[in-house]
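I hope you will forgive my troubling you with a question about protein structure. Could you please explain, in whatever detail you think fit, how the structure tokens follow from the sequence? Thank you for your consideration; the sequence and its tokens are set out here.
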Amino acid sequence: MAEGKATKLWALPGAVLTAPASLLMHGGDDTLLDLPCPSFLIEHPKGLVLFDTGCNPKVIDDAVGYWGQIAEHLPLKWSKQDTLDKQIQGVGYKPSDVKYVILSHAHLDHSGGLTYFPNATFIAGQGEMQHAYWPHPDRRWAFILNDYLPTRGYKWLEFGQDFDLFGDGALQFLYTPGHTPGECSLLVNTSSRKFLFTGDTVHLRAAVEMEATMGIDTDPNQSTMSLRRIKAIRDMQGATMWITHDPEDWKEHPHRVE
């Protein structure tokens, strides 16, 4: 197979949530962390691809009104100048230019910008959308139904296995369930290196070597196997693992790659 390349990649900042490490991994302490909620825009000759859509901009003005009481436990910093549509415009595109949107999973800090892209094709892991509409009762706080109701008429695809988007190895959807039924990651090959965007397959650097799962994972055993798999991709294929919410990853990795 020819080794295709993504031509450009941008890490787009979104909201920053504050939460304790103990929420994000078993064994974590009560240290409060500022957690980025970015999206990743990838340029490929066959189309513009977005990985994750961050939080819904309605939380900027009234987080409790949109998210409910959970917002009191997840304080956020975000401005109207940094919403996803403006971030995309800032790198020279319009939201309507995005051809494919890959949703790592359906939690409230990843699904808030879906409605910016009504004409895109949406890709999620198998079982994710059913779970988003009807999650386990003790996890309903993490899913915002109003993020999804406007998208019922959108074009959705669900994959229960890995999928090479363009058949050239440049962007590979990786099915890494456990955190949610359809959790996925994305492997992107650029001219300088491979990036492995983890979604919430893992949340913090400290959790990687410990193989620590999260308390609200739907299947901790699957979570562990998925984490071991992305570690193997990192180690055996030389991929740079980018943990979506890890503040050190956000500081360390380049936000524009060509």
